[in-house]
Amino acid sequence: MAAQLPVFMNNQLFGCFDDVGDCVYACCCPACHLGTIAQRTAVGDCIGTCCMNTIAYNFCFGPCHSKGVLQSALYRVGVSAPIGVFECCCCPLCLQCQVSREVNDRQAAAALAPPMQQQQPQVIVVQAPAVQAMCTS
Fold first, then answer.
1. C-alpha torsion sign, points 105, 44, 93, 24
2. How far is the C-alpha of 22 from the C-alpha of 25, rounded, in Å?
């Protein structure tokens, strides 16, 4: 069994100037921002994720909930490298922005990529030999 190398994010953690509007949105309403990430990647719905994140932060489990949502969103777009605990606890908003940019970039690239050609099954036609009658005299 061969070990697969993890696929890392292409965006940097502190890339705030790459998408200023997204970072402002994350700073003003982090729970809603997390909900939109979940909605765009089909990890959860926007309202449910937003509510769960607000409740989780009220009980000091916010970083754990955010990490789970963000990691699932990254898996959906093809990133398999794990998210670090430092980023989740010390810079959660920067991490959300990084994941949001990564999701945007990968979904845009997938939309521009040509559709994969589905291979048609190969059909082999075999004809049965002609029926031969036995002669009885």
1. positive
2. 5
Residue that is written with structure tokens 């959860």 in the block: 44
Of 106, 91, 111, nearest in space to 15 by CA: 91
Q: Give buried/exposed letters for 110-130 (b at 16+ CB in 10 A, else e).
A: eeeeeeeeeeeeeeeeeeeee
- Mind giving me the DSSP string for the chain? -PPPPPPPPSS-TT-GGGSHHHHHHHHH-HHHHHHHHHHHHTSS-HHHHHHHHHHHHHTT-HHHHHHHHHHHHHHHHT--SPPPHHHHHH-HHHHHHHHHHHHHHHHHHHHHSPPPPPPPPP----PPPPP-PPP--
Task: List, for residues 7-29, the tens digit of each pLDDT value.
Answer: 888 888 888 788 899 999 999 99
DSSP string, 50-76: HHHHHHHHHTT-HHHHHHHHHHHHHHH
The model's pTM = 0.76
